[in-house]
Structure formats: C-alpha cells, structure tokens
Amino acid sequence: MSTEHLTVAGIDIDLIRKDIKNIHLAVYPPSGRVRIAAPEQMDANAIRLFAISKIPWIKKHQRKFAEQHRETPREYVNGESHYFMGRRYLLNIIEHTGNNKVVIRNRKYMDLYVKYGATRDQKERAVWEWYRRELKSTVPDLVAKWEGVIGVKCSYWGVKYMRTKWGTCNTTAKRIWLNLELAKKPVECLEYIIVHELVHLHERNHTERFVSLMDRFMPNWRLNREVLNSLPVGHEKWGY
C-alpha cells in the first residue's frame, strides 16, 4: 500500500493505492478531508478523471461538514452546557475535599465534584476521565451483542481520543479503537460505529459488499450516521 497526494479543482486529495479491485471515494467529517482508494496498477490519468467527475459530490459533502455546528470552547464554569450520551446537561461545580467525580442529577445537571481551587484544566481532566470510564463501562455489552449478530469476534477494543475518525479497525489483529468523543453522543451513534468497525472484520474496505453487510446487520445505519455527523463537534479539539 502506498500514499500519494493530488490536487483537483483546488481540492487536496489523499490517494491510497492498495490491493483492491475498485476505486473508492470518501469525504470525512468534520472538515471534509478527501481520500481516494485506488487499485495499485490503476492509471494516474484515470484516477484524476474519476476525481474530476466527483467534484460536485465532494463539494456538497464538504459544505455540509463546514456548516456543522461546533461547540464553543468549554470553560468549565457553573451553568455551562455539556453533553453525555446525547443529552445536554448544565454543569454544576461543587468544591470538596474528596476525590474528583461526576454525578448526573435529575436528568438536567452534571455535578462536577473537584478539590478546592481546582483549575480549569483540572476540571476538564476530571470530566474527560469520567467520560472514559462511562464509555468503557457501556461498550462491552454492545460489542458482545453485535459480535453475536455479525458473527465475528474482535481480539481487543479500546477507547482513545482520535482527531480524524470515530473508530478504527485493524483487521489483521482484529483490534478496534473507539473515539472518546462518542461518550457525548446518543448510544445509537455509538452502536453504529461499533457495527461499522466489526463489519470490517468481514470486509476490510468500504466496498459494495461492506455496504450490503451494513444493510443486513443494521438497516438504519445511514440514519445513525446522519445523526452522528449532524451533532456538534468539539471546537477546541476537532480540526481535521
């Protein structure tokens, strides 16, 4: 597999040559990064002509991502909006002498317990550590559920912050990573990403077979993808 770059109509495109039969085009949120995956021996002019034919489609999707709402930088002060599993909560900071913790109260408030005099960065770290714990407690049952439905078994899954993807799958090692940002999103969106990555264990690339498998295992996956890509993304973190 090799990586090249080309520019068509002022649009920068990452070109990946790999051992595949057909050419594939993708535009990734939130900034509209464009990638073409092409067969290793495909003529360069043929690839360029393909890209030119897809310019209107590329620009349409890039406009959609450009219009997507961005979260303003979080200051971690009382009354600020924060999201968890698709719901909006008002932050309520409580200083105390114990350990940092987050408690969801009355389906409206996110009580953040921190030590006296905690800085903004310390509050932020406490919230994200809580996001990580909550996501890691939710994922196992969902992975087990969908492994049974899809008929695959991943060897390992993990959670980490990623700048460019909601999830990744190493098909050789059968290892899956999920973006920590998914803790903010509805559980249906989390399930969609889990299914997407597990289906890669059947089909490595985004081929017609991959789409067919997604349709079979999760018929509403396009709706879940649309919901995920329409939700606010973190202004202070997401920049790809």
Notable traits:
240 residues; alpha/beta; Zincin-like; four-stranded mixed beta sheet; globular; disordered C terminus
Q: Topology of this protein?
A:
Blueprint: E1 2-8, E2 11-18, E3 24-28, E4 33-39, H1 44-53, H2 55-66, E5 70-71, E6 81-84, E7 87-96, E8 101-105, E9 109-115, H3 120-150, E10 156-160, E11 167-170, E12 175-179, H4 187-199, H5 208-217, H6 221-230, E13 233-234
Parallel strand pairs: 2-4, 5-13, 7-9, 10-12
Antiparallel strand pairs: 1-2, 3-4, 6-7, 8-9, 11-12
Low-confidence stretches: 235-240
Order of helices and strands: EEEEHHEEEEEHEEEHHHE
| The CATH C-level class name of the largest domain | Alpha Beta
Structural class: alpha/beta
Largest sheet, in brief, is:
4 strands, mixed
Helix fraction bin: 25-40%
Mean pLDDT: 90
Strand content: 25-35%
- Outline, from the CA principal axes? globular
The rounded distance between the terminal residues' Cα atoms is 23 Å
CATH-assigned fold name of the largest domain:
Zincin-like
CATH architecture of the largest domain: 2-Layer Sandwich
Beta strands, count? 13
CATH superfamily of the largest domain: Metalloproteases ("zincins"), catalytic domain
Number of domains: 2
Written account of the structure:
This protein is of the alpha/beta class. The chain has two domains: 2-66, no CATH class; 70-234, 2-Layer Sandwich (Zincin-like), CATH 3.30.2010. Helix content is 36%, strand content 30%. It contains six helices and 13 strands. It has helices at residues 44-53, 55-66, 120-150, 187-199, 208-217, 221-230; strands at 2-8, 11-18, 24-28, 33-39, 70-71, 81-84, 87-96, 101-105, 109-115, 156-160, 167-170, 175-179, 233-234. The strands form four sheets. It has a four-stranded mixed β-sheet with strand order 1-2-4-3, with helices on one face. Strands 6-7-9-8 form a four-stranded mixed β-sheet, with helices on one face. Strand 6 (81-84) and strand 7 (87-96) form a beta hairpin. Helix 3 (120-150) crosses helix 4 and helix 4 packs across helix 6. The longest helix has 31 residues, at 120-150. The protein is globular, with a radius of gyration of 20 Å. The relative contact order is 0.12. The model is unreliable at 235-240 (pLDDT under 50).
